[in-house]
């Protein structure tokens, strides 16, 4: 062999080397071409697979029938397959409707209503990996506001709901352990609580709420300023698994928050809807109106500072805030409990838990660097009502990025 190589001239050696390199390049290009073909095929197949949307509509909301017409017109004008519309009833809430829609083959669920409709529909969708959209037509719409979803512009909300920009958020759960259904865990996306906040919501006039929106809750609150305080034991399990129990404490209200922002105020400045943690807040006042006035000052203070801390000048009020993954309360006497503004009834034994990033929510702003994003939409300001074209342009960008990303992930998994 050595004699054969030595007999070859340098020219032949160069030619053989060039041939080997050429074959390598040809093989590389062939592999790349094959991968591009598979990538293109994956994109085409993805585009040909229609998304079946189901809208969970609360017909009791003002303008619900008009919104229903807007939904159908939107899908027709955007050449989308006709959506399924399932209406809630007195004996059939958003959870039941969403379950029915998924059993009938819905790929994506969109809640059309207020926080109650959103909460119950999301309860069924959580953990399914199906995208969840929101078209807010209620009064408070607190979760939609925390997500940056357009309020008062149905077409803009529909554009977001049918885009590919999503982020995964936590879902809180509340169980009434002394009820007829102790195993049932009621969902909440914003705040759940027991005590004053539930009594305030229960005493809010629905007719007044329709006229002045969430401000009606203040009227319900005034009715409960001088009700007796609550007494019991509170146990909180932290992120490290350690359990801390406070016995025989007195308080006005105990709340667990997933989102801490309400219009104009920050109830829980450090609450994050995707950290797998609940923010717990134990509130108490003494001294009658003086205590309540100081409590209002505490809320204003933490709204301005954006820190979970009490106003150093405050007296006759206390706001104790901590974080954890679970909490249990045992009361001396039953008290009302609520989840996202829905009253569950009275209970003496209650438990809060959280499901980490259980719900995939369609939102208008999704940074490319955000973990668990199912699509990418460059951060944009939600336009004013009537500027839906701007949202549609941003959504088109999100769809393109999402399509490319999905195809790349599908290709890498096959390779």
Automatic annotation (TrEMBL):
<keyword id="KW-0472">Membrane</keyword>
<keyword id="KW-1133">Transmembrane helix</keyword>
<dbReference type="GO" id="GO:0016301">
    <property type="term" value="F:kinase activity"/>
</dbReference>
<feature type="region of interest" description="Disordered">
    <location>
        <begin position="384"/>
        <end position="415"/>
    </location>
</feature>
<feature type="transmembrane region" description="Helical">
    <location>
        <begin position="12"/>
        <end position="31"/>
    </location>
</feature>
<feature type="compositionally biased region" description="Basic and acidic residues">
    <location>
        <begin position="400"/>
        <end position="415"/>
    </location>
</feature>
<dbReference type="InterPro" id="IPR050187">
    <property type="entry name" value="Lipid_Phosphate_FormReg"/>
</dbReference>
<dbReference type="Pfam" id="PF00781">
    <property type="entry name" value="DAGK_cat"/>
</dbReference>
<comment type="similarity">
    <text>Belongs to the diacylglycerol/lipid kinase family.</text>
</comment>
<dbReference type="InterPro" id="IPR001206">
    <property type="entry name" value="Diacylglycerol_kinase_cat_dom"/>
</dbReference>
<keyword id="KW-0812">Transmembrane</keyword>
<dbReference type="InterPro" id="IPR016064">
    <property type="entry name" value="NAD/diacylglycerol_kinase_sf"/>
</dbReference>
<protein>
    <submittedName>
        <fullName>DeoR family transcriptional regulator</fullName>
    </submittedName>
</protein>
<feature type="domain" description="DAGKc">
    <location>
        <begin position="48"/>
        <end position="179"/>
    </location>
</feature>
<dbReference type="InterPro" id="IPR017438">
    <property type="entry name" value="ATP-NAD_kinase_N"/>
</dbReference>
């Amino acid at each position: 062999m050595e004699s054969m190589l030595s007999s070859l001239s340098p020219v032949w050696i160069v030619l053989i080397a060039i041939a080997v390199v050429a074959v390598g390049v040809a093989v590389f290009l062939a592999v790349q071409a094959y991968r591009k073909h598979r990538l293109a095929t994956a994109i085409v197949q993805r585009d040909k697979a229609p998304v079946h949307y189901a809208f969970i509509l609360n017909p009791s909301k003002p303008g619900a029938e008009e919104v229903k017409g807007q939904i159908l017109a939107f899908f027709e004008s955007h050449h989308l397959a006709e959506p399924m519309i399932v209406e809630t009833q007195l004996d059939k809430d958003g959870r039941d409707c969403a379950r029915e829609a998924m059993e009938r083959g819905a790929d994506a669920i969109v809640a059309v209503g207020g926080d109650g409709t959103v909460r119950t529909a999301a309860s069924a969708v959580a953990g399914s990996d199906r995208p969840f959209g929101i078209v807010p037509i209620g009064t408070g719409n607190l979760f939609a506001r925390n997500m940056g979803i357009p309020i008062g512009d149905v077409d803009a909300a529909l554009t977001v709901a049918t885009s590919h920009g999503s982020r995964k958020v936590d879902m809180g759960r509340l169980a009434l352990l002394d009820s007829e259904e102790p195993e049932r865990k009621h969902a909440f996306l914003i705040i759940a609580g027991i005590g004053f906040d539930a009594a305030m919501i229960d005493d809010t006039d629905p007719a007044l709420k329709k006229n002045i929106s969430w401000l009606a809750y203040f009227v319900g609150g005034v009715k409960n300023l001088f009700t007796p305080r609550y007494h019991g034991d509170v146990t909180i399990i932290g992120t490290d698994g350690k359990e801390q129990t406070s016995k025989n404490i007195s308080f006005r209200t105990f709340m667990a928050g997933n989102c801490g922002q309400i219009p104009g105020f920050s109830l829980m400045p450090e609450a994050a809807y995707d950290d797998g943690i609940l923010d717990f807040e134990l509130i108490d006042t003494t001294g009658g109106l003086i205590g309540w006035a100081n409590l209002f000052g505490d809320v204003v203070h933490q709204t301005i500072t954006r820190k979970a801390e009490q106003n150093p000048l405050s007296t006759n009020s206390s706001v104790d805030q901590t974080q954890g993954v679970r909490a249990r309360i045992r009361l001396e006497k039953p008290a009302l409990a609520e989840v996202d503004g829905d009253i569950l009834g009275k209970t003496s034994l209650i438990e809060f838990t959280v499901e980490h990033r259980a719900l995939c929510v369609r939102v208008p702003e999704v940074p490319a660097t955000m973990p668990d994003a199912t699509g990418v939409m460059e951060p944009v300001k939600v336009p004013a009502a009537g500027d839906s074209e701007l949202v549609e342009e941003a959504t088109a960008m999100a769809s393109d990025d999402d399509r490319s990303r999905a195809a790349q992930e599908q290709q890498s998994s096959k390779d």
